[in-house]
Amino acid sequence: MKRELVIVLDFGGQYNQLVARRVRECNVYCEIYSYRIDIEKIKAMNPKGIILTGGPNSCYLEDSPTYSRELFELGIPVLGLCYGAQLMMHVLGGKVERADVREYGKTEVLIDKKTSKVFQDVSEKTVCWMSHFDYISEIAPGFEITAHTADCPTAAAENEEKKLYAIQFHPEVLHTQEGTKMLFNFVRNVCGCAGDWKMDSFVESSIEAIREKVGDGKVLLALSGGVDSSVAAGLLSRAIGKQLTCVFVDHGLLRKNEGDEVEAVFGPEGDFDLNFIRVNAQERYYGKLAGVTEPEQKRKIIGEEFIRVFEEEAKKIGAVDFLAQGTIYPDVVESGLGGESAVIKSHHNVGGLPDYVDFKEIIEPLRDLFKDEVRKAGLELGLPKELVFRQPFPGPGLGIRIIGEVTAEKVKIVQDADAIYREEIANAGLDQEINQYFAALTNMRSVGVMGDERTYDYAVALRAVKTIDFMTAEAAEIPYEVLQKVMSRIINEVKGVNRVFYDLTSKPPGTIEFE
Ligand code: XMP
Q1: What's the rounded mean pLDDT across residues 129-135?
Q2: Among this protein's residues, is 191 annotated catalytic?
Q3: pTM of the shown model
Q4: CA–centroid distance, residue 348 to ligand 1 (Å)
Q5: How many helices (H) and strands (E) does the chain have?
Q6: CA 472 to ligand 1 center in whole angstroms
Q7: Catalytic-residue membership of 132
Q8: Can you name the residues that pair with 49 across neighbouring β-strands?
Q9: What is the three-class DSSP state of 236?
């Protein structure tokens, strides 16, 4: 089935991924490309619509990102947002100038053309998110103004006949109260998309596509138990069953019972048909980590050991046709392959192809999906909710939540403390509010008393952060009673701990992890 496509041309705006996500929420498939993409490629993709994003530049300056007039003459509907709107006017003969005042924040927009297709069912006065210095001082020939604000004569303009729409504000941002409706109107009313991009159809069509691609070949996947690799495993299993082999390396640095939970889902007792290999490499890892205290060194050892273990298993399995990876769309965009606003999260993505596995081709079944879509696909495939909605957990696991040397004893302490903490956060109904929370083990031991006895035990640190992008974060405000309950349970139930600290540090200057 050929799916309908809307493309987003990225001019460097910070909301580029958000635009694509909102379009997909309208059940229309959407991909992001840099504004540098060749017009021939756009023609070949034959999109139903094109959206130009915002960006930090001034379109009338020499070296600013731009696009040729031809883009607006393809007969394909175009919606320009913020910089995209200004660029559309500039290229088509209007005028864009620097304004005296910057318009920023929630702004009341007055709709002048109530019959505009993009403003169908939108209130006459509607709150929108503005963020611009430049403004459209003259619209291009053939256009009419369709909305304005107190400070901005052209909040929106259109050439209905040519299906060209310019919007100065940001409908993709949630502060624009009727923004999703406007984007919906554009993709469904103007572009005429049917809106049949849904997770059940994604799962179905992916299963077919995987079968076609893999044929009777063999596929190998490194399963970590995280959301992405688990959903990839579920999808591949539904498509090709036992042609899929998943290697799950238990490095002994997982959260409490996590290894068994992964096995319960994907192992022989679970609902998925595949070859599941669990490698219990705990002792091996503890051996390698003995005496090592430096955080980067620990990360390195954990990473290298993973490669070695995986390599040994891959050798036993022999040559495979495909190596599967749980790459998702933000990884593609952020690595600079998709859009313009490339941010490389260096230590998070492994990068490069593993040359230690004998395979012919990479297969990435989730490459087109945003994280929330991956989760939806996971539910669709019947994966347990706890797995689908689990919080981020770093590859090096508890190895980077234990200060100083990692030992089996310390791992057990941090696992038990962390399990109590998570249980109490869930009991208090805070688990959906806090983006990441966990217990870590400081390397500090201090004197305490328990009953009549003197103790000399470890201090556990509790961390909980609120964050949107995980690049910056604030410590979450957890009610005192909850913290106190967690503290008392950890002291009473976890042997080897006599103090509990709550970490108030934001990022920066801290990091989210505790290493
Ligand atoms: P930091 O500690 O850098 O963490 O503020 C930001 C986010 O990234 C996660 N993180 C990792 N994830 N491998 C991963 O897969 C890693 O090595 C790694 N280090 C940190 C961390 O849990 C947080 O969500």
Answers
A1: 94
A2: no
A3: 0.86
A4: 6
A5: 14, 18
A6: 12
A7: no
A8: 6
A9: helix
